[in-house]
Amino acid sequence: MINAAVLGSPINHSLSPLLHSLAYTHLGIDARYEAIEVKAGELANFLTNTDKSAFSLTMPLKEEAVALARNTSPIAQRISSGNTLFKSDGDWNLTSTDVEGFKYTLLGHGITHVKKCLVIGAGATARAAVAAVSSLSDSIEVINRNPDRQHLMNQAAEGELTFLPWEQPSEINTADLVINTTPSHVADFFQSSISLPQGVLFEVLYHPWPTAISKSWADSGAVVIDGLDLLIHQAISQVEIFGQVTINRSEMYGLMRQAALTHLG
Fold first, then answer.
1. CA-to-CA dists, residue 212 to 44, 121, 189, 227, angstroms
2. Which region holds residue 27: left if phi is over 0, alpha if psi is between -120 and 50, else beta?
């Protein structure tokens, strides 16, 4: 039996229990999956006392887990964070399915190559985005407010990144792909900069929807990808890890997205 949970804070809003439970039921796997509030600095103590063996990690635990896992996958090391923690042979193993989540989402929308990608933010999600698009974008620019995070962003990238100051950039309208990885309302700052954007906006948020920039983007007639696709694809990869199964991704994506949309209303 799979005994798992999603950990983070706040966690009550998480759709992971819905998505994972749907998947295990559909696959005929005996599993229990719930949401548990674990705040920053509490993960080590929680792992010492839990009887569970598999976790999805969300903010603020993705970076904290790196120091606690016995075995960390190359991709988690590269992006200095992990969203998938599971026990094997008595040891905690950490990996990230966020990078796959970005890749499968872009592929699902027919995006296999872009000339210029603009990433907003420099946290764990931004590093996963950079790792995912490094192989399909000729150049990547990053808008961030914290210079201390730039070295981790460079580590996540395959090539050279260009860092832009946190101001109203013209690049937001000329990039082929813009990925917003910042928390709710942070990117509202850029709404006034949006003017006939040429590329696709990938907004990693999904609730409440639409966000300010996604609405402005869509109102201009340009394409918007919502964060629900990212959530679903990273979850599918987690289910494969926890259940040790191979999933029909297209079928499971359809089931999960419909369930999530119904739940969100």
1. 37, 16, 9, 14
2. alpha
For the chain, 265 residues long, give each residue's pLDDT as a single digit of tens. 999 999 999 999 999 999 999 999 999 999 999 999 999 999 999 999 999 999 999 999 999 999 999 999 999 999 999 999 999 999 999 999 999 999 999 999 999 999 999 999 999 999 999 999 999 999 999 999 999 999 999 999 999 999 999 998 899 999 999 999 999 999 999 999 999 999 999 999 999 999 999 999 999 999 999 999 999 999 999 999 999 999 999 999 999 999 999 999 9
SS3 262: helix
| 2-97+235-264 CATH, one of 3.40.50.2300, 3.40.50.10860, 3.30.70.270, 3.90.550.10 | 3.40.50.10860
**At 21, which amino acid appears?**
S
Cβ-based burial of 239 (10 A; exposed 0-12, middle 13-18, buried ≥19): buried
Question: What is the pTM assigned to this prediction?
Answer: 0.96
